[in-house]
Amino acid sequence: MKKFVNDPKSFVPEMLEGLALANPGTLKYIPAYNLIMRADAPNENKVSIVQGSGSGHEPAHVMVVGQGMLDAACPGDVFAAPPMDYVYETAKLMASPKGVLLLVNNYTGDRMAFDMGKEMAEADGVRCEILTVNDDVAVQDSLYTVGRRGVAGNFFVIKAVGAASEQGADLDELLRIGRKVNDVTRTMGVALTACTPPAKGSPLFDLGGDEMEFGVGIHGEPGRERRSLASADQIVDDLLDAVVPDLPYNSGDRVALMINGLGGTPISELYILYRRAHQRLTERGITIGRSYVNEYCTSLDMAGASLTLVRLDDEIEGLLEAPADVAIRVF
Amino acid sequence: MKKFVNDPKSFVPEMLEGLALANPGTLKYIPAYNLIMRADAPNENKVSIVQGSGSGHEPAHVMVVGQGMLDAACPGDVFAAPPMDYVYETAKLMASPKGVLLLVNNYTGDRMAFDMGKEMAEADGVRCEILTVNDDVAVQDSLYTVGRRGVAGNFFVIKAVGAASEQGADLDELLRIGRKVNDVTRTMGVALTACTPPAKGSPLFDLGGDEMEFGVGIHGEPGRERRSLASADQIVDDLLDAVVPDLPYNSGDRVALMINGLGGTPISELYILYRRAHQRLTERGITIGRSYVNEYCTSLDMAGASLTLVRLDDEIEGLLEAPADVAIRVF
Amino acid sequence: MSLADTELVVRTIADTAIENEKYFGDLDSVVGDGDFGYSLARGFEKLLEGWDDLDRTDAGTFLKRTGMVIASRIGGTSGPLWGTAFMRAGGAVAGATDLSHEQVVAMLRAAIEGIKARGQSDVGDKTLLDALVPFTDALEAGTITEAAAAARAAADATSGMVAKRGRAAYTGERSRGSVDAGATAVAVIAERISEIWQKQGASS
Amino acid sequence: MSLADTELVVRTIADTAIENEKYFGDLDSVVGDGDFGYSLARGFEKLLEGWDDLDRTDAGTFLKRTGMVIASRIGGTSGPLWGTAFMRAGGAVAGATDLSHEQVVAMLRAAIEGIKARGQSDVGDKTLLDALVPFTDALEAGTITEAAAAARAAADATSGMVAKRGRAAYTGERSRGSVDAGATAVAVIAERISEIWQKQGASS
Ligand SMILES: Nc1ncnc2c1ncn2[C@@H]1O[C@H](COP(=O)(O)OP(=O)(O)O)[C@@H](O)[C@H]1O
Ligand SMILES: Nc1ncnc2c1ncn2[C@@H]1O[C@H](COP(=O)(O)OP(=O)(O)O)[C@@H](O)[C@H]1O
Ligand SMILES: [Mg+2]
Ligand SMILES: [Mg+2]
Ligand SMILES: [Mg+2]
Ligand SMILES: [Mg+2]
């Protein structure tokens, strides 16, 4: 396994300890619940914003804890939702008179942990609301499934509610804003390689040298279908063909465009994808108001990328523009 | 080849085009010379700061063009120094009454291209100075080599001279500052996998499943020696044993600590490395004043990392703290 | 079934989960995300860490406490599902110390209802229910040996099914052709209990 | 050697570099960074793009122009080195159109001195000089066929050397055991020129 790892069992705690050590003064780490929190949280003048999910998606979510984004994140182990206990303890710790907003990417495990954790925290008198993110168009929403997954578009929901909460918005207002952003956000991803969870030590699935998985989620589970490798431009065109008609995004729309790396793809390649997406959207009469090219929500070391669109209006754009100060920074 | 690529020959231009499209208003792209420049450069009130080098090291250097860092970058093809023509044209375009500072990582090709380009620009009346970066302790400096390579520590030199030039420092002052930062900066890297240049389409060298390359540069060339894979903690200890005694960094010193990903290693693992390095340095009585955990200077998709230390004083720390606005950002 | 028997069954489930960490994880990586074995193993390790301090007032209390440790300490989908199953099982036999065959069956039925409610799932969705329900039906009608065989047959048969719940559901038709990890875990555990039960029956 | 012959030689160098892009790149990836073949191929493609417009006043001018295109358009270490070599070769025969055997040798010596100066390198450093110098020595004493054979033997012998210049030098002792990419490129080009020269000799 080509990884920097000591004992796979301590992968997550050691990462979190490193994160806290690198951000003294701004972040605090509470080992008992895998909790990374703002050193100054909870703030009684703002709603606390919390997200948990499996680990392995870094920088999501522990590295976007900070001013203007999350107040705390309580990840589970690699690709495993946090135990409900972590959610419960985190909600209690983050309790603010203005309440706690729990962000949940739509996966069965996460929903159950947050439902149970919320109930327990409410029984202790903590006001909590859950906001579910489900931006992945690869999953057909139907009676037979648990619905669309929450993937990289999650970043925009966090950013928007994070900014609004700094500006004093109350819990109901944050729910409105978060749902509104989620409703205009769509993502689709593609994997060129399978990822290797540290505890497994080998790739999650076999992918031939000339194959790719189209419509993957962020946990290394296989995607919608296996296809032959194609050129960067062709891949972007196919992703856009899935994403654009889904909302749909129309000529005249102004959007945020995100090319998110899945962990093993260098940023040079992400810009090659961005280029085509920008050109194609422009041809369709869609204006790119904001651009995001980097890693936001990954699958460990998977080579691959996802493309996200968010339809902007003045309110959303204003919130996306607002300042924030989180651990993933360059300076 | 598991890459997002169209024609390998257009890898670099397409990436640069994407970068410019994603940063309208702040960046300009001039295809004839692979040039990425600040839209507002040259600024006649400041020295222009320019770097070129091979491509494949992104975000270095094209993605750190912007306020507070580089005024322009003129990369060559993947792992190939830019042709001297690019240097010449870039220097002419960036000509400011205060002069042009050319930053060069110490490789034969880059030095030759910049020496020749500088001579040609000077013949046209442009005042230029070259500042060479050579922070890599993996290379023994001796009569028989071309000296130490410039690797990730380059970031600190750019940041410091970038900040000072914004504050109005003249060319001589920038040379003094840049040399001073370079003199207190040391780096050592390790690779867990070989990288795959797009034009080659296969890994540059074979590395067994239980092997790693110790003391690698940033071009995928093999390193100082091949070793058996070790735990993350052990790797950090070995890197520190090479880096710390080299300056040396002593008890009582205050340092910047960078864990730089080489392109294929997820940030979660970088924090696992950071944790150990922070702990070990603290045990040695060295204070970590500033922390950097991310990708700064990569080798395409290589899994691996480097560790850099910079000894801080008030002047250097002030310059590293100064604001900057470049393309690698999260918002 | 005495309280000691109940303890032995729970202990056997825990040991089996820990020993099969890699196998269960590999099953979950075919169309899932590979964490199933890891989640179960870490959770049951936690249970064993506090094993001696678990409240053993009666079988119901013991099972409920077990469920609470699991639900609060195992992550992923399995923590809430398995935790709920144990808690409901304990609730169904609250206060009882020695359990009759009927009580054991009633307890399993309660666990099944708990999983269905928590997971919004049912038989046919290609989950652990597709082994646990046939196991319970067979146990009601016969012996643990027969029940274990039924669980095994049913678990193997999940290979022909398309997943409608759990992460495997995202792959749609592609989930056909491999067994469900949860259902197989149920079969492996049932076989192990059956085996130990027979040895123990022989020795007691 | 007529101006047409000089053109043919340069053209042959360009064609050989372009055709051997992958081979030269693979050689450079053993202890280098794999870009040598790509750099040469792209640069000589640029030369051929402007081929018809190159100034052909005399052989000296033609070679100088060639060198300028290469130096300004090829990246990596090879651009400055090969560009300098062609420019210096042109300088050595400035104004001449037909070149004597002595002039050809003098031109090669000038190219060698240019590479040494630009690269701060010498024979024995395991670079293209280790093929180019033996080639030149043999040509001075004999025929192109003999010179090509000398270049090949010398290039093969670089395998036993430790690199002291170029990127391969970073690997120290590990650079022993594989041939130098630049030296091998010189041998391949020399063999190709020798071959074409013989055919051309036969036809003219
Ligand atoms: N909604 C559900 N109801 C019942 N069982 C489920 C459900 N979802 C998943 N399972 C079971 O859980 C197993 C996977 O568990 P685990 O790996 O912990 O979940 P996750 O998908 O969160 O990684 C599946 O093999 C299946 O048997
Ligand atoms: N200083 C030098 N002097 C002469 N030749 C050199 C020197 N450095 C490298 N070379 C030659 O150049 C070849 C590599 O060229 P190239 O791949 O373009 O360089 P790099 O990638 O190291 O910048 C080597 O095989 C060697 O023959
Ligand atoms: Mg999981
Ligand atoms: Mg090179
Ligand atoms: Mg799973
Ligand atoms: Mg090379």
From TrEMBL, chains A, B:
One annotated GO molecular function: phosphoenolpyruvate-glycerone phosphotransferase activity
Q: Does the keyword Kinase apply?
A: yes
Q: Does the keyword Protease apply?
A: no
- An example of a Pfam family matching this protein is Dak1
Coiled-coil residues are none
**What does the UniProt keyword field contain?**
Kinase, Transferase
EC number of the protein = 2.7.1.121
Please list the residue ranges annotated as the DhaK domain.
7-330
**Broadest EC class?**
transferase
Q: Which domain of life is it from?
A: Bacteria
Q: Which PANTHER family match?
A: TRIOKINASE/FMN CYCLASE, TRIOKINASE_FMN CYCLASE
Protein name, per record: Dihydroxyacetone kinase subunit DhaK
Q: Which organism is it from?
A: Paractinoplanes ovalisporus
* UniProt gene name: dhaK
Automatic annotation (TrEMBL), chains C, D:
Pfam families in the cross-refs: Dak2
DhaL domain residues are 4-195
RNA-binding as UniProt keyword = no
Which UniProt keywords are listed? Kinase, Transferase
Database matches in InterPro entries: DhaK_L_YcgS, DhaL_dom, DhaL_dom_sf, Dihydroxyacetone_Kinase
Highest taxon, organism lineage: Bacteria
Please name the Gene3D superfamilies in this protein's record: 1.25.40.340
- The keyword Kinase is annotated on this UniProt entry: yes
GO MF, any single term: kinase activity
Protein's UniProt name: Dihydroxyacetone kinase subunit L
Biological source species: Paractinoplanes ovalisporus
GN (gene name): dhaL
